[in-house]
Structure formats: C-alpha cells, structure tokens
Amino acid sequence: MLIDAHCHLDFPDFDADREAVFERARAVGVTHFVVPGTTRRHWGRVLALGKREDVGVCLGLHPYFMDEHAPDDVEALAQWVEEHPELVAIGECGIDARFDETLDAQWRLFDAQLRLAKEKALPVVIHCVQANDRVAKRLRQLALPAGGLIHSFAGSPEQAKRFLDLGFTLGLGGATTFERARRVHRAVASLPDDGYVLETDSPDMPLAGHQGERNEPARVAEVCRRVAELRGQSEERVAAASTATARRLFGLAT
C-alpha cells in the first residue's frame, strides 16, 4: 500500500479525468491521497475532495500565489480551520526564496500560519525552496508541537537531520529520480525509516523521464522504487514505512 502525501488533485489540470487519475493510482497500490490548499479561492474545491474516504485535506496560503492573497486571508483561514475539524494539517505554506521581491511578505504570511498551526496543534505542510536553513531556524524558535512535513525536500543530509531533530518529516518526490541530484540521494540514504513520506506534488514536479508531462499520483510507485534503490531496501519496506509515517503524521485512518 502507498500514500501520496502531497498532490494537488483539486487543480483544474485534473477536471477532465479526475476519477480516472484516482483509478490509475489505485491500480498501482495507492490507497490514500493528501491534498493541500494553496489559495483561499480554491479551499472549497479542496474540501469537496475531502469528502472522499481516501482523501485527507489541508488548507493554507502558498507563497507562490502572493498576488492572490488578501490581508484578511489568515483570519479567514483560522475560521475555516475552526469550522472543519476534518483537516489533517495547515498548508501548503512556506518560503520560496526564488521570488525575492515578495520575500518579506512571504515571511509574514508564513509566520502567521505557523502560529495558527501551533495554536491548533496541527501539523504544518511546508513549501521550502532555497531556504532550508532559514526555515529550520524559525521552526526551532516556534517549537511546533505537531511537527509537519517539509514538502519536496531537496537539501543535504545535514539539513535533513536538522528538520528531523525538530520533529518534522521529509517529503520525497520527483527530485529523487534525477541522476544529477546527488546531494538529495545522500540525504535519502541517510534517513531513518520513520523520517520520510512519498509524494508526487501532482500535477507538478514530473519525474525523470516524464519531463513536460502532467504528473499524477500513480507515479508515487516510481518514487517508491527509486527511494528503495537509494536506501538499499526493498520496495515493500519503503512502501510500508512511508505509509505508516504518513498515517501517523496526518492522523489518517488505517
């Protein structure tokens, strides 16, 4: 059994064949999907997917969409969290340092969501691009009780350990499948069995050999295969370990 711990199945990219996407994933052993929210405008779509028994949902404000966020969105998020106890985490939120012009605003928005996660004792799903050290420093200062997920981890073994020591889990996805990603490969090999989950970030982050294609949850099986190779373990062991960790992190039913 596999869990795709991070996939944006609410995105319009899947409107034409969403049920077929679920079926293809189930055919390769994917039994559960975690869908994070990115903007207030689309939270309703995320919650609609959460009515399925095989989908866990999160709500958050993503740093990539800063132009779409309004000043009262964090207040609205707090209200939605209060009204929807089925949420498994807050996110996707975080820092994307590629966009320097919005970086100050990103940090304010991220910090507000971290504080909300701490107040509600919910895990937080973090988007962290070119900011691992700075994000780890902030997480250490806040000491979030429920930890969370460092989505699409692409750092060093040292950065991985830092996040693990803070009670966070690392999301392994498409980056692990590229031969040139040697630093990530070393990090993957160094992780304890309970330190990671598998994910696709569908429809984004295509795997090696699938560049230019829409990504989808069925390909988490390919991620599992690659992670098993990097760790010198069987696919069955990696699938079992990552599934158990995802269930624990998000409180998913067995």
Overview in brief:
This protein is α/β, with parallel strands linked by helices.
What does this structure look like?
By secondary structure, the protein is of the alpha/beta class. It has helices at 18-27, 43-49, 73-83, 103-120, 132-142, 157-165, 182-190, 220-231, 235-250; strands at residues 2-4, 30-35, 55-59, 89-96, 124-129, 148-151, 168-172, 196-198. The protein has an 8-stranded parallel sheet. The protein is globular, with a radius of gyration of 17 Å. The model has no long low-confidence stretch (mean pLDDT 97).
List keywords for this structure.
single chain; 9 helices; 8 strands
Strand content of the residues, in percent?
Answer: 15-25%
Q: For the CA atoms, what is the radius of gyration?
A: 17 Å
Give the CA-based shape: globular
- Please report the number of helical segments: 9
- The ordered string of helix (H) and strand (E) elements is EHEHEHEHEHEHEHEHH
Biggest beta sheet attributes: 8 strands, parallel
Helix content bin: 40-55%
Count of DSSP strands:
8
- Helix and strand content put the structural class at alpha/beta
Low-confidence stretches: none
Distance from first to last alpha carbon: 11 Å
Mean pLDDT across all amino acids: 97
Strand order of the largest sheet: 1-2-3-4-5-6-7-8
